[in-house]
């Protein structure tokens, strides 16, 4: 809208200012949630968490790719892997050993705090964008000269 030149027809500078502020805030909010949070979650957060996933759980995640195993298990190697994966998770409890627990705490807790901070900041941006939109609509309804 800003680049189309159509804003030049709006003579109410307060309304114009509110529209531009809303546009800027909504773009910043989208950038935070789509780019920053996704990038962090898909890369640093997930790779840190994957370090501490027991092999049985990792294998179980791989198994879940096979929603319909009969379609994918034409190859005997794939069938063997599928059967081994199922047997890995039977009657198992997945608790980190004490020697891994300290490393887990040192690495994962800061990553979780960072993810929480990113989510909180995005929610704050969403709240500000919502309030700006409500103010814009309220102003438009009370100052509409059409």
How would you describe this structure to a colleague?
With 146 residues, the chain is an all-alpha fold. It has five helices and no strands. It has helices at residues 13-50, 55-64, 69-72, 76-89, 98-143. Helix 1 (13-50) runs antiparallel to helix 5 and helix 2 crosses helix 4.
- Arithmetic mean of pLDDT: 78
Give the overall silhouette. elongated
User: Which ranges are low-confidence, i.e. pLDDT below 50, for 5 or more consecutive residues?
Assistant: none
Largest sheet: none
Total strands: 0
Q: How many individual helices?
A: 5
Helices and strands, in order, run as HHHHH
Strand content: under 5%
Helix percent band: over 70%
Structural class: mainly alpha
Rg, nearest Å = 25 Å
The separation of the N and C termini measures: 20 Å
Give descriptors for this structure.
5 helices, mainly alpha, 146 residues
């Amino acid at each position: 809208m800003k680049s189309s030149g159509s804003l030049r027809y709006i003579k109410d500078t307060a309304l114009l200012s509110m529209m531009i502020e809303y546009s800027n805030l909504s773009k910043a909010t989208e950038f935070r949630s789509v780019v920053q949070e996704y990038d962090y979650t898909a890369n640093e957060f997930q790779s840190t968490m994957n370090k501490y996933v027991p092999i049985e759980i990792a294998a179980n995640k791989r198994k879940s790719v096979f929603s319909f195993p009969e379609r994918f298990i034409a190859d005997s190697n794939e069938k063997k892997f599928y059967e081994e994966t199922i047997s890995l998770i039977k009657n198992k409890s997945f608790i980190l050993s004490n020697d891994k627990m300290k490393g887990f705490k040192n690495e994962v807790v800061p990553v979780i705090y960072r993810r929480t901070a990113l989510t909180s900041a995005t929610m704050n941006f969403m709240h500000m964008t919502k309030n700006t939109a409500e103010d814009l609509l309220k102003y438009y309804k009370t100052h509409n000269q059409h």
